[in-house]
């Protein structure tokens, strides 16, 4: 898929794999919205990317993907800012056995919600041009790790 001129939304986009996705998409000519719940990491990532790429090609939106209204609002802001949405990367994820409910909300529920929002905004019958949704998971879902059983189950 050619991404030059396309608009992408990346959850967990300020750090790690999400940041690598953002950088790769920008390197291929896309415009990218970085969503992250960490405002400091998001602003630092945006500033660093602005030095390497044109500042108008990125926007940072602070967003806790477990908050339905924040996630819906972030999708709306992307459309308002860039005028379209072509690529959704559901990347936000955690590994926290002690707070398993939060792990489910981030690693599973928000991915499902992000997928449905992406379908809604990119659907041709709804004014979109179609698009691509990429859901990131973990290799832990392929093998059950008895040290971290719950995380392995959520990553399936």
UniProtKB/TrEMBL annotation:
The protein's enzyme class: oxidoreductase
Record Pfam families: adh_short
GO biological process: prostaglandin metabolic process
Organism: Pavo cristatus
Gene3D superfamilies for this protein: NAD(P)-binding Rossmann-like Domain
Signal peptide: none
Catalytic activity: 14-hydroxy-(4Z,7Z,10Z,12E,16Z,19Z)-docosahexaenoate + NAD(+) = 14-oxo-(4Z,7Z,10Z,12E,16Z,19Z)-docosahexaenoate + NADH + H(+); 15-oxo-(5S,6R)-dihydroxy-(7E,9E,11Z)-eicosatrienoate + NADH + H(+) = (5S,6R,15S)-trihydroxy-(7E,9E,11Z)-eicosatrienoate + NAD(+); prostaglandin E1 + NAD(+) = 15-oxoprostaglandin E1 + NADH + H(+); resolvin D1 + NAD(+) = 8-oxoresolvin D1 + NADH + H(+)
InterPro entries, A to Z: NAD(P)-bd_dom_sf, SDR_fam
Biological function: Catalyzes the NAD-dependent dehydrogenation (oxidation) of a broad array of hydroxylated polyunsaturated fatty acids (mainly eicosanoids and docosanoids, including prostaglandins, lipoxins and resolvins), yielding their corresponding keto (oxo) metabolites. Decreases the levels of the pro-proliferative prostaglandins such as prostaglandin E2 (whose activity is increased in cancer because of an increase in the expression of cyclooxygenase 2) and generates oxo-fatty acid products that can profoundly influence cell function by abrogating pro-inflammatory cytokine expression.
UniProt name for this protein: 15-hydroxyprostaglandin dehydrogenase [NAD(+)]
Enzyme Commission no: 1.1.1.141, 1.1.1.232
Molecular function per GO: 15-hydroxyicosatetraenoate dehydrogenase activity; 15-hydroxyprostaglandin dehydrogenase (NAD+) activity
Entry GO CC: cytoplasm
SUPFAM superfamilies, alphabetized: NAD(P)-binding Rossmann-fold domains
Family of this protein: Belongs to the short-chain dehydrogenases/reductases (SDR) family.
Domain of life: Eukaryota
UniProt keyword list: Fatty acid metabolism, Lipid metabolism, Oxidoreductase, Prostaglandin metabolism
């Amino acid at each position: 898929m050619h991404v030059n001129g396309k608009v992408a939304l990346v959850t967990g986009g300020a750090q790690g794999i999400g940041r690598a996705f953002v950088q790769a998409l920008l390197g291929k000519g896309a415009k990218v919205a970085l969503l992250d719940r960490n405002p400091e990491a998001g602003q630092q990532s945006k500033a660093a990317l602005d030095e390497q790429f044109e500042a108008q090609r990125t926007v940072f939106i602070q967003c806790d993907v477990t908050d339905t209204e924040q996630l819906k609002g972030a999708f709306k802001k992307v459309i308002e800012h860039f005028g379209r949405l072509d690529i959704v990367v559901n990347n936000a994820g955690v590994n926290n056995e002690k707070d398993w409910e939060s792990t489910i909300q981030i690693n599973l529920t928000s991915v499902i919600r992000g997928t449905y929002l992406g379908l809604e905004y990119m659907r041709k019958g709804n004014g979109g041009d179609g698009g691509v949704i990429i859901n990131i998971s973990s290799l832990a879902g392929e093998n059950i790790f008895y040290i971290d059983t719950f995380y392995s189950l959520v990553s399936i």
